[in-house]
Amino acid sequence: MHGHQTISSGELAAQGGTTSAQVRKDLSFFGSFGKRGLGYSVSALSSSLREILGLGRQWNVVIVGAGKIGAALAQYEGFRDRGFKVVGVYDEDPARVGGTLDGVVVRDQRELESDIMKLKPHIALIAVPAEAAQTLVDRVVKAGVRAILNFAPTPLTVPEKVTLRSVNMALELEILSYALVNAGE
Amino acid sequence: MHGHQTISSGELAAQGGTTSAQVRKDLSFFGSFGKRGLGYSVSALSSSLREILGLGRQWNVVIVGAGKIGAALAQYEGFRDRGFKVVGVYDEDPARVGGTLDGVVVRDQRELESDIMKLKPHIALIAVPAEAAQTLVDRVVKAGVRAILNFAPTPLTVPEKVTLRSVNMALELEILSYALVNAGE
DNA sequence: AAGTGTGAATGCGTTCACAGCA
DNA sequence: TGCTGTGAACGCATTCACACTT
After folding, report:
1. Nearest CB to A146: which of B57, B148, B180?
2. Strand ranges (DSSP E) for B53-146?
3. What's domain B59-171's superfamily in CATH?
4. CB of A171 within 8 Å of any CB in chain B?
5. Is B174 in Cβ contact with A172 (below 8 Å)?
6. Which residue has the closest alpha carbon to D15 C1'?
7. How far apart are CA A157 and CA A179, in angstroms?
8. Using one digit for the tens of pLDDT, what is the confidence trace for A8-55?
């Protein structure tokens, strides 16, 4: 794998934990990058995908909520490595406002709208309790954010032009517990 | 909604952000709980579902990795509320071993196997760097854990009898960035 | 010979639509 | 009449299989 100029769909599949047919189908959705009998040029494929997925650019992110989850997100290195930069963290609790999380100062949630207008972040991460989530989503959407990643364990609604994805850790655990209960069948 | 003895699939759908047909189909998978023309008895449905999903019981959980994500998980109230109890947190870094996270002492990763044999946790949460994840999964599986929730951004393999689910936050952000790049089409 | 790209077959979850029961 | 429970239709993603290219 090291030093290969070229890589086959089968090798990519093994790395990604999927099948060769899947890899070819997925790539063909974006275009035709491979050579028959040979495989894909590693460098050409890599740069094409970076381009297509928008990973070349830097994406500015604001985190709403500086509790346990918000703090973990602010300090997660995986984001920075992939071009996601945390430009703001917000909380409503005065005890948290003014503190710093990995170099970013926690700001008052009342500044949210004006900061979003100014910083124009591309993505907002919602890390507040379930009850507060919809209200805050509405606020960041109204201020201009078009992409939201929700960590609150509640379904949210957004206008059609806004992209919303949700991560629900408690639900994942419940699915596991269901699998455990029904293991012997 | 408050004080209702009974609730229709349409009302449940609105709360859950889905459709009435979806709700009826999902519930019918487990059995037949509703009354035609009336809806579902809130209390009966609630207790049946708790039973079926295994939410009545307590599930013991170990967290492998006491870094940023492991710490956030250890302190996440959402788990305790739903019957998931953190019975152990493990790390290999001596600087972290012996510290406490929300009342649970961080133990040496070398104790992992013997503790699992003793505590018999139902679920393991993997919160270590991608490179170490597969090794640790293999270790907890070998020690007897049957359900794993993975937070490391890498595909993992487990034996068939083990249930594995993965949460990949960086991937979620990349999907959002792709949506943003292709917004105007 | 090796391995892509893609129509066709398959599987699965979601939506539709309605018969039947309270 | 109201709303469930469920077969049938549908849509979409995954898998198969093979003609075609280098």
Report:
1. B180
2. 59-64, 84-91, 100-101, 104-108, 123-126
3. NAD(P)-binding Rossmann-like Domain (3.40.50.720)
4. no
5. no
6. A21
7. 29
8. 999 999 999 999 999 999 999 999 999 999 999 999 999 999 999 999
